[in-house]
């Protein structure tokens, strides 16, 4: 249907009558509901469909424009996306919140009730998945044509509940109420092969070729979720793949009465996209995980080749039509897959295909933790992806020739750079594959990028220094400020103009207001009201009553030893012991709030949660303490809960051991919402501190250079314990029986700290206490605290993910972005 215009209609009109009619039409025609009998969930679905229509129309128009102009599109490959609830965000982006609210009011429906109906897609573990979603939001906002490719897990990250102080994992049935945001695209199916063997053959010109004869084929079905941009006519697409059996049954087996075998294959195929692996920063080497990684990258690349041919462009031009970003090494097998598609399927010569491949990919590293670096047994790859193993060997052979030429006789370097780890059982090193196959390699904060060049990827940086760059992470100010903190949003609009979410540097206009006592008063009122709201959620979810005027000291993020939630707890218990001994001690009222999920198999992380809940049980009920300090574990930390928590933070805990947190983004969300940070010189904390001013940041702890020095100098945590009476007292307290009748409960944590302490808690303990003392002192001067709080927000503009995306466009993808409006 060439030449058919995408016209406006009632469906996407923004007048009051159009909105009302569109909503009722969806309720009646799309859902088949009688308005009189319709439920709240029906209303949510009908509203979501109405809003989706608006977003879709933009999406289709924008796609048409991109194809007409042949722009280079960005494909963001990520095994995880953590978008959060869509409805409120779209309404904000489209500027429809108030007109929709009014329209619904007219029908006796409350918008907030409908917003609460939405299940969030928990298709990620934490920071990495959330970053992918912030980036889609910003890509749409700054006007870049883009697709986020990933997996449509049927079950996302588990639901966390707390029972008797322990984490309990529940199944995340996010699709059960129906998902109105996605559109199934039966036309975009892709076949994905696994197993079998390869065969040589010769083409018409007698050139040797390879053919892959798989043992299994699985079908990928595309599900599209449009992602709107703020005040933008561009729309990004999140295209997620679901695995299906190619045939619903193996009919021959079925007809022979072998029902079990027939069903087995179908179930095995569909298992592929069944569930997200709940490990954050830990590579466990499970075969199903490798299958997932290959599955979605294979679907994505074939889909992109299909779109390329719709443009009438040849496969050799793949890289000028697409820039692919690899979000960590999870999609790194794509390097070998694109080579296979270009060479085996499209008949390109190796050298041309390699040039195209290397000009297509860029790789973002997210961690320096050795246990997170992905490597797959050679035999596993060979069994599942025999052709890819051959291709990886070929890439490696050619690459190592290049290395030999640059560093003759340096066999150790060769062994380190090789795509194959041959130091023991053989493994394919995915970071090496990603580096060799990419145009650009980046870390996610200045410090992290520097450490990357000095440690994990030092040999690659020596070989190709120009490949390496930094793009500091960012967060979307739409979801995490405007939507999460409307009170602050209003205040910001007054001083920075109403378009501040589209140009976050405008927040600098706040600075002079930090000196205005009346403005500071307004600022405190906004924070207090956010804290009241959070206090009511805490009461509802945990039964704990907290004082909204107390200092809200918050650490919410995945539970991990390197993030050191247990260091925070050592401080909590130290304060407690101090108050017990000296009830007159000047300790301002504080509420310690923890939240975050522990990987189900991570023993110590689960004990850390138990320690937080045990501390709460003891302290919250201790009459001597009389509510001066309280400890809360907020269950099920996810994007939605984050939106209620981040705006209510006074003190942001960013206390990872220096050199361990690649960037962090929770740190940015909190500081943007006016929290002061207590933190180490780790990840983006370094840049946040520079931006907000060192006088507005509570710094403590070893720096990244001191950490290895201390470790190699023979660090003995037990000596710290022996020589510091306060430390000894609090460590002994953990196994004293005061935290519950089972004295052994925290013995593993204590043993870990006394005899290993891999994250140097005992070394940083004193510095941390001192910094916490400075926090208390500043808190007792509310005007000074508020001033610092305002300056934090005012100076955080560069941590908008719009800035990160502009950096990627300029330094990595070489695509144009919209200019900022004046
Ligand atoms: C921002 C965010 C994170 C990342 O938090 P960090 O403090 O940077 O580790 C994790 N989970 C959710 C739900 C988030 O919104």
Automatic annotation (TrEMBL):
GO MF annotations in UniProt: 1,4-alpha-oligoglucan phosphorylase activity
Keyword Iron tagged: no
Record's catalysed reaction(s): [(1->4)-alpha-D-glucosyl](n) + phosphate = [(1->4)-alpha-D-glucosyl](n-1) + alpha-D-glucose 1-phosphate
Record keyword Transferase present: yes
EC number: 2.4.1.1
Key words, A-Z: Carbohydrate metabolism, Glycosyltransferase, Pyridoxal phosphate, Transferase
Cofactor: pyridoxal 5'-phosphate
Function summary: Phosphorylase is an important allosteric enzyme in carbohydrate metabolism. Enzymes from different sources differ in their regulatory mechanisms and in their natural substrates. However, all known phosphorylases share catalytic and structural properties.
Sequence similarity: Belongs to the glycogen phosphorylase family.
UniProt cross-references to PANTHER family, sorted A to Z: GLYCOGEN PHOSPHORYLASE, GLYCOGEN PHOSPHORYLASE, LIVER FORM
Annotated protein name in UniProt: Alpha-1,4 glucan phosphorylase
Upper lineage: Bacteria, Pseudomonadati, Verrucomicrobiota, Verrucomicrobiia, Verrucomicrobiales
């Amino acid at each position: 249907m060439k030449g058919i215009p995408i016209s406006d209609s009632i469906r996407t009109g923004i007048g009051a009558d159009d909105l009302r009619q569109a909503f009722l039409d969806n309720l009646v025609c799309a859902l088949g509901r009688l308005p009189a009998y319709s439920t709240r969930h029906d209303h949510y679905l009908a509203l979501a469909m109405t809003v989706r229509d608006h977003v879709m129309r933009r999406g289709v128009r924008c796609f048409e424009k991109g194809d007409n102009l042949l722009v280079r599109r960005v494909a963001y490959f990520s095994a995880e996306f953590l978008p959060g609830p869509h409805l409120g965000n779209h309404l904000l982006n489209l500027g429809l919140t108030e007109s929709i609210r009014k329209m619904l009011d007219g029908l006796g429906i409350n918008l907030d009730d409908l917003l609460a109906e939405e299940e969030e897609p928990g298709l990620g573990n934490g920071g990495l998945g959330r970053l992918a979603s912030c980036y889609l939001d910003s890509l749409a906002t700054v006007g870049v044509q883009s697709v986020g490719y990933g997996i449509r897990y049927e079950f996302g990250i588990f639901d966390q509940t707390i029972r008797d102080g322990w984490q309990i994992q529940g199944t995340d049935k996010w699709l059960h109420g129906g998902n109105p945001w996605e559109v199934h695209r039966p036309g975009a199916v892709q076949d994905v092969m696994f197993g079998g063997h390869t065969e040589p053959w010769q083409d018409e010109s007698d050139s040797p070729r390879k053919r892959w004869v798989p043992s299994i084929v699985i079908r990928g079905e595309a599900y599209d979720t449009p992602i709107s941009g703020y005040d933008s006519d561009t729309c990004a697409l999140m295209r997620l793949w679901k695995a299906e059996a190619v045939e619903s049954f193996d009919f021959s087996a079925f007809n022979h009465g072998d029902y079990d075998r027939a069903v087995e294959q179908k179930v095995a195929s569909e298992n592929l996209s069944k569930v997200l692996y709940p490990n954050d920063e830990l590579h466990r080497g499970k075969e199903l995980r490798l299958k997932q990684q290959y599955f979605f990258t294979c679907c994505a690349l074939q889909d992109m080749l299909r779109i390329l041919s719709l443009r009438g462009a040849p496969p050799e031009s793949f890289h000028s039509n697409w820039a692919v970003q690899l979000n960590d090494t999870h999609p790194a097998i794509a390097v070998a897959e694109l080579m296979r598609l270009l060479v085996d399927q499209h008949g390109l010569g190796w050298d041309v295909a390699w040039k195209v491949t290397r000009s297509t990919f860029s790789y973002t590293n997210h961690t320096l933790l050795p246990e997170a670096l992905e490597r797959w047994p050679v035999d596993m790859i060979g069994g599942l992806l025999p052709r890819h193993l051959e291709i990886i060997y070929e890439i490696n052979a050619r690459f190592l020739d290049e290395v030999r030429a640059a560093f003759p006789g340096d066999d150790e370097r060769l062994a380190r750079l090789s795509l194959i780890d041959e130091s023991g059982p053989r493994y394919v090193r995915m970071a090496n594959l990603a580096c060799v196959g990419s145009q650009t390699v980046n870390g996610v904060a200045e410090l992290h990028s520097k450490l990357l060049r000095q440690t994990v990827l030092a040999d690659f940086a020596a070989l190709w220094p120009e490949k390496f760059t930094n793009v500091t992470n960012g967060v979307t100010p739409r979801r995490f400020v405007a939507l999460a903190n409307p009170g602050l949003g209003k205040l910001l609009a007054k001083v920075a103009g109403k378009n501040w979410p589209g140009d976050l540097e405008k927040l600098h206009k706040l600075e002079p207001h930090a000196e205005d006592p009346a403005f500071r008063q307004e600022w405190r009122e906004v924070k207090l009201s956010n804290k009241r709201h959070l206090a009511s959620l805490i009461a509802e979810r945990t039964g704990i009553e907290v004082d909204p005027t107390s200092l809200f000291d918050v650490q919410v993020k995945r539970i991990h030893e390197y993030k050191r939630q247990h260091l925070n707890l050592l401080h909590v218990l130290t304060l407690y012991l101090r108050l017990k001994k000296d009830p007159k001690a000047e300790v301002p009222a504080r509420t310690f709030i923890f939240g975050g999920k522990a990987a189900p198999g991570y023993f110590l992380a689960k004990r850390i949660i138990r320690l937080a809940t045990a501390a709460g049980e003891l302290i919250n009920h201790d009459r001597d303490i009389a509510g001066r300090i309280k400890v809360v574990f907020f269950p099920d930390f996810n994007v939605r809960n984050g939106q209620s928590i981040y705006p209510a933070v006074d003190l942001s805990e960013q206390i990872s051991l220096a050199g361990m947190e690649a960037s962090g983004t929770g740190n940015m969300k909190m500081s943007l919402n006016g929290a002061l940070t207590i933190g180490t010189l780790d990840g983006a904390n370094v840049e946040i501190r520079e931006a907000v001013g060192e006088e507005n940041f509570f710094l403590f702890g070893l720096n990244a250079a001191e950490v290895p020095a201390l470790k190699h100098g023979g660090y003995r945590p037990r000596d710290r314990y022996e020589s510091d009476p306060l430390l000894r007292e609090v460590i002994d307290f953990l196994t004293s029986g005061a935290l519950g009748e089972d004295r052994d409960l925290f013995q593993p944590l204590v043993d870990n700290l006394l005899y290993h302490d891999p994250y140097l808690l005992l070394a940083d303990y004193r510095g941390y206490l001192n910094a916490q003392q400075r926090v208390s002192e500043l808190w007792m001067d509310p005007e000074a605290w508020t001033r610092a709080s305002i300056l934090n927000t005012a100076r955080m503009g560069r941590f908008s993910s719009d800035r990160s995306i502009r950096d990627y466009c300029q330094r990595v993808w070489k695509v144009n972005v919209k200019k900022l409006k004046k």
